[in-house]
Amino acid sequence: LKCPKNLEFSYNIRACNHTCRSLSGHDPRCDRENAPTEGCGCPEGTYLNQEDICTPKGQCMCYHSGGMTPPGPVIIDGQQCLCEDGKLRCSKDCGCRNEKVCVHCSEFAENTAQKTCDSLSKPLGANVTCESGCYCPPDQYEDHYGKCISRNNCTCMYSGQLFSAGELVKTNCKTCTCIQGQWNWIDEACSGKCQVYGNGHYQNFDSKWYRFDGHCQYTLVEDYCGYRNGSFSVRLESVPCCDEALTCSRTIILDLEDKVTLTLSDMKVTRHLQSGWNLEQEPLYTTNSGTLYNSLSAKPRSNSPLG
């Protein structure tokens, strides 16, 4: 058998650790069965390079996360390195302080984007990046003071203020706890407001405004949701007003626990009671009449006040 280039035939060829690339790091060929076989390979003491030529290890390129570099001194990631016998050796001195250690991405690529407490609360990007420099030791993170601490002691930021691990913040209807550099939220019962006025101006519970001028009866809000017995619903009847191009909510219908139906129209409130029930049994609502407004307050079974 005639071998290409300067390879030679042997009855005892092994693939493991016989390439220049294997000198720079772990050779995945060694993870498989490495029984000797006959074929073409490099003579003893030489290694197969990227051009499939057998060379002494002193002529081998050095492989790293950023690519390849020829034998000799070279600057990589701002560090003085030396490629020798297929291995890359870089200066360990980065001038690190505050218990931080040097990270050389050319020797060992790791995700340096998440080495701070602040980064733990941010989504991890699709591309894991490595930048050489000074970082906290493994399993430690840089807090907002620049010190290296464990993940359980990581600090959190909220509205420009710094909070220690375990501290609580209450905002709107949530209680937040700083845990491992992230805010852990606990939702609580929260009141909300929606409103309709004028010619089709709607504001929902998210405080977003909409313009809607349909001519029909519409459900503004309810807690039936199609799968349970509800306690209330509010319906609106939008009709033309002032000008045929404008609509106004002239009639409002409020149903309470399928016991009382209240209709507000033309500044008057009328009610309809279901048979077998009267207001003395359970006062479901109160009214307050004024010069400009009729105010009605109700409390359904959920004990969440409605106004």
Automatic annotation (TrEMBL):
Residue ranges crossing the lipid bilayer per the database entry: none
Occurrences of domain VWFD (ranges): 192-307
Keyword annotations from UniProtKB, A to Z: Disulfide bond, Glycoprotein
A Pfam entry, by short name: VWD
Protein name, UniProt field: VWFD domain-containing protein
